[in-house]
Amino acid sequence: MSQELPRFVGFATLGVLTTTQEIAGRVLEAIPEADPQTVVEETFAVVAVASARAAEVGFESQPDVARAAGATLASLPLFHQDYMVGSAVLANPSSPVEADADSITRRISFYASHLQEGVFPGSAVLNEKLELFMGRVSVPGLETSPSERVASLELVDSLSLHLRVILGFARSRSSIAETTKIGG
Description:
Elements: H1 4-30, H2 36-58, H3 63-74, H4 76-91, H5 101-114, H6 123-137, H7 146-152, H8 155-183
Helix pairs in contact: 1-2, 1-3, 1-8, 2-3, 2-5, 2-6, 2-8, 6-7, 6-8
């Protein structure tokens, strides 16, 4: 397995977290009555899975690395939940802590079924999937459609930029690994 994988995963994790915060913040600002936990979990899931797909394409010349990077990035929402539960337990050991891993797993699975493995999600695909996302996080009775909200919040542009950065970094790491293997 590539020695570039840990560096890539660290880099990509920062991107996933930053993009998740950016998109969730925009959505919550635009739809203040939306459930914050739902918005954050849905956002984290769609960003993590889309990032996994970008990584899989970026490392396509190294299938084992592509699978490992993709699986790790897609699982970030679960890792985050484990971290938060651990923090809560350590902060207050006498209080019970409940975590709904099934909810996050279902959200990840939903987006994994909509974003094809090993295929980079371009703008048209992102627009379609972010409309689904917006429908899942919105409250009933809003005056605008999910597609109008996705467009006005510029969600496709934000996620697309993030995915292009992930793809480029994965390709650069893959190229370095290939050069080392050839020259070494």
